[in-house]
Amino acid sequence: MRMSQFFLPTLKETPAEAQVVSHQLMLRAGMIRQTSAGIYAWLPLGWKVLQKVAQIVREEQDRAGAQEMLMPTIQSAELWRQSGRYEAYGKEMLRIKDRHDREMLYGPTNEEMITDIFKTFVRSYKDLPKNLYHIQWKFRDEIRPRFGLMRGREFLMKDNYSFDLDVEGAKLSYRKMFLAYLRTFARMGIKAIPMRADTGPIGGDLSHEFIILAETGESQVFCEKRWLDLDVLADDPGYDSDLKDFFAKYTSLYAATEEMHDAATAPAELETARGIEVGHIFYFGTKYSAPMGAVVTGPDGNPVTVEMGSYGIGVSRVVAAIIEASHDSNGIIWPDPVAPFHVAVVNLKADDAECARVSEEVYAKLQAAGVDVLLDDRNERPGAKFADMDLIGIPWQLTIGPRGLKNGVVELKRRATGEKQELPVEAALAKVTG
Amino acid sequence: MRMSQFFLPTLKETPAEAQVVSHQLMLRAGMIRQTSAGIYAWLPLGWKVLQKVAQIVREEQDRAGAQEMLMPTIQSAELWRQSGRYEAYGKEMLRIKDRHDREMLYGPTNEEMITDIFKTFVRSYKDLPKNLYHIQWKFRDEIRPRFGLMRGREFLMKDNYSFDLDVEGAKLSYRKMFLAYLRTFARMGIKAIPMRADTGPIGGDLSHEFIILAETGESQVFCEKRWLDLDVLADDPGYDSDLKDFFAKYTSLYAATEEMHDAATAPAELETARGIEVGHIFYFGTKYSAPMGAVVTGPDGNPVTVEMGSYGIGVSRVVAAIIEASHDSNGIIWPDPVAPFHVAVVNLKADDAECARVSEEVYAKLQAAGVDVLLDDRNERPGAKFADMDLIGIPWQLTIGPRGLKNGVVELKRRATGEKQELPVEAALAKVTG
């Protein structure tokens, strides 16, 4: 993409309405635009990041054996009356009447709808287990939407639902998602720690919140220091195993949110930090399957009410949470796997023929190599260009200027460390594609 | 994907509520499930097709220089008052009050919102032209939703919006989208004919509907026979040209919907057919930019109200329209580019060791080659397996049975033609991957 054509409205000043750093930086980096209270449009740069985050979520769900589908945003109130949640959900549910005065709602979650779909089609234990997911916009009518994407009203969530014949199967499904979530966040270049959690309005017996540590986090959390040294991608035993040892290892270390923290039982060597919730998994047995009649015929011919769990990742919230965990005073520092572009090629002097020639050549080579590259071909001061690239947080900045070219070099800067090197063009290309 | 694990609830009987063939086949093929009147969940098979269709739309938009973003589904009524459409839109707009009694709506289209975003950030002619698109769910509260996806309430649409400094620029943007739409449908393996159209509630001076011909189409259309012989992918002059000759050629042939048809001026050699609208493009000048104040500074320093166009493809509707245009009495016949799977490997005798061994080997080889493959490993009668594969319309069926294996062959069937061949495994693999 060429900066001269890209719709990237960066701002020099921090907008007064933004209180938290992710909201400030998303506005300044031209990633989002508020369209109503707590509702945002994703501008092209933000949309690219959201897609990358969603794609990692998708790949790890698929890898864990979950199947993607898509449920609609608008649901009928009738379904929610079956589970008893229609009245219970309160004012955060956006309630709608259609032109025929039928009561509808904008889905805040999908336990009822998926249970209804499941029971329509699945009748036999032979069709179990099943795990179905979708990545869909949800709405929660917050009384005071704030903090940008962190507490918005319309938000993107990956939610999935597991169906098993018995408790043992349901717990295996739970452990698979526990691993999938750890892998998902690790692949994004961030550490999310599962903490035992209250089950809240979803209900159930077993639940973990996945918390990203960030100084600017919304709540206090406690965990053993050893947590920070674990490497889940190295520890991954694969989904064909029963995952018991893995689960035991990863739940044996102390990790708790403030509500669940118990100083009496906590170990002495404790990290106290701020955290942001980015995922939540639940095993809740027959809480929805029983009232809604999700029953299959078991191996012995008798009816069995299926055991369920549900699992959520706040995909749009993850984007903000990554920024909270990874930024400096100049702007965002994207981890490579979720960066909107991998390399920014900065032409220092757009009206210099040689700078333009080399910049275009480097841009074309990176595109041909399948690298997501942004070319700053604008006629702007060097300082403005560097400030923009630091602000939008591209992992590699490859700067091409007249002085360097005379010496046969370009400058390569790593955003995360600030480290700069002068290198011949080919060496710089090898470094960013290697 | 293994059929034994896949959530694919096919139906033997045609559901009584479905009147048109696409609705019948989507239900029978386990692609969708109605969750409320005119609102559908996309089950995994349907979701795969919807994603493939959306991806082709996306690639052709990107290729034409449009930039992807994402606007939210819920909009404020205030924006629509600025354009004067809030009252005008009628009962098809789903109107919502949030917990603070603010008037909101579920977006049926996005002219107002994109114009507001544009005017916030774009102030100079130097930033033009711009073309922004998104692929987002829309809602139209149809009084009588029917025909499944053809006239549903919640539907997926790609809509984009072009902004230009002058009429000449806006018309070039229009021609680019005209080409992009022709390419988009051609790449899906279907022929969509642009027909001069009434501009309706969007307004404007210049407009084409893109119509797929199908015997079961919703309305009557008229076009010259020569239209059917045009090959847009061969004729494509590229987006760096002014596209005038191309546009002239493709609009010189007579093509009109029933409302626009004029027998007096139509040529004698006319094809009368049924058609389905899948896209609609509009040039409407300053209809939204003037009342909403989307003004930039021109090259001479004077303010210029920008010239706009909008362009829509009914992505979910396209899935149904393709089925209307491509099916037989046994089921769907997917064109290769949008098929949910490219090949179905049918193991005729799941409990035969040699059949299982070869089937697994073929399945693994196709997966390794990056082919989207479905393995029918179920313990079902051969007749039931063939019926399911014909119903869900996979382009290639590769059948592995004990009799064939004794002779060193498998059977390869092309869904579209019914043509069958017996071939050695390697030859069959070469054919489906070639």
Automatic annotation (TrEMBL), chains A, B:
The keyword Cytoplasm applies. It is an enzyme of class 6 (ligase). Its EC number is 6.1.1.15. CDD domains: ProRS_anticodon_short, ProRS_core_prok. It catalyses: tRNA(Pro) + L-proline + ATP = L-prolyl-tRNA(Pro) + AMP + diphosphate. It is found in: Cytoplasm. It comes from the Bacteria. GO terms for molecular function: ATP binding; proline-tRNA ligase activity. Keywords: Aminoacyl-tRNA synthetase, ATP-binding, Cytoplasm, Ligase, Nucleotide-binding, Protein biosynthesis. One of its GO terms (biological process) is prolyl-tRNA aminoacylation. It holds the Pfam family tRNA-synt_2b. Residues 38-335 form the Aminoacyl-transfer RNA synthetases class-II family profile domain. SUPFAM superfamilies: Class II aaRS ABD-related, Class II aaRS and biotin synthetases. Homodimer. Belongs to the class-II aminoacyl-tRNA synthetase family. ProS type 2 subfamily. Catalyzes the attachment of proline to tRNA(Pro) in a two-step reaction: proline is first activated by ATP to form Pro-AMP and then transferred to the acceptor end of tRNA(Pro). This is Proline--tRNA ligase. It comes from Aerophototrophica crusticola.
